[in-house]
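Lab channel / #folding
Pinned by the channel admin:
"Please post every new chain as: sequence first, then the structure tokens as a reply. Keep commentary short and put observations after the output so the thread stays searchable."

First post following the new format, from NK:
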Amino acid sequence: MSAGRPDAGLFNASGVAERLVASPLLAIGPSEPRPAIRRGFLVAVPIGIALVIELGFGAPTKGAIATGALLAGFPGLDAPAGPRAVWQAAAAPVIGICAALGILSSTATVPAVLALGLLGAAAGYCFSVSLRLAIYGLSVALALMVAQGLYLPTDEALPALLWATVGGLAQSAWSLLVWLTVDRAADDEQSGWSTQRALAALRTNFTISSHAARHAIRFGTALAVGVATYRVFGLHDHGFWIPLTILFVMRPERGETDKRLILRGAGTVLGLIVATALAETIGDHSLVVAALLFVAAAFSFGLLTVQYALFTASITTYVVLLLDHLGEPAFQAAGERALGTALGIVIAFLAFRLWPNPGEPPGEKLI
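Reply from TO:
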């Protein structure tokens, strides 16, 4: 696939992805913006409903259900509504389990490092099967990472499992409703999953010469280093931005990772500026915050395959606004978030320099 917009979709009928390449900073693609953003707003509907209930009416879940729905929105995002519901239903309980595991493992540095390192390696190895499965793996790893970074007491593990799962299932139920009422006739109902093909790909790539296997080791190690860094240096409040950056930018190819490092930096700066300005302007108006978070989530889904820097700005805006509403001042924390992003970029950059793919010269993009 070329770096421009393809004639066909990113995924074929069986759900196998072609290699998704992020567009340069001032370019759009490979997905067409209008249909992608329309789908983004559609997928964000359960998040908006959950935010109104949780923030607008002061529910004790404090955004946990909306966050579960957000994370479950990424698996199968490319698929029609029917297959998307299947992928989201499969992701929901795993996201809940990982959220609980994140809380339990956050009590000490060693379990936190091991948990995210091992799960990150498993998520990275999912690239050997398909991009769709890789996005699934990254979503569940993100659930563990965010839960670790919140430093909640261990008695919150069970509620986290419950509410994150509920949010994921709400996302799946919405996709199912869309499939039943809107686009069922037009859907290709294949989920894109083949156990036989997946097992064959996992076996074939189980060698150190495989780019997928090397990415799994490199990715898991980088995430572990990211967690260790913010814990050792006492960046407890905003340190999870280090592994968050690593998770979003690292891909099996060096050239694609390098490009995403630049886009991530630009998008994070933009997102921090927008989110901080909004947080300082709107104050504590819960329904307004919920509406803005809905829009940020919708653009996050819609821009993921359109313009990576703008996707980063959108997801950064979502996280900063939500945390600000929960009591973490956006303006005071902006510098620490920027520092965490910078450290994550450095770790991801060094990971490829210390252990590159065999036969891949600097800047080459394997697409």
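NK: The CA atoms of residues 15 and 79 lie 8 Å apart.
TO: also worth noting, Residues 46-183+197-354 form one domain.
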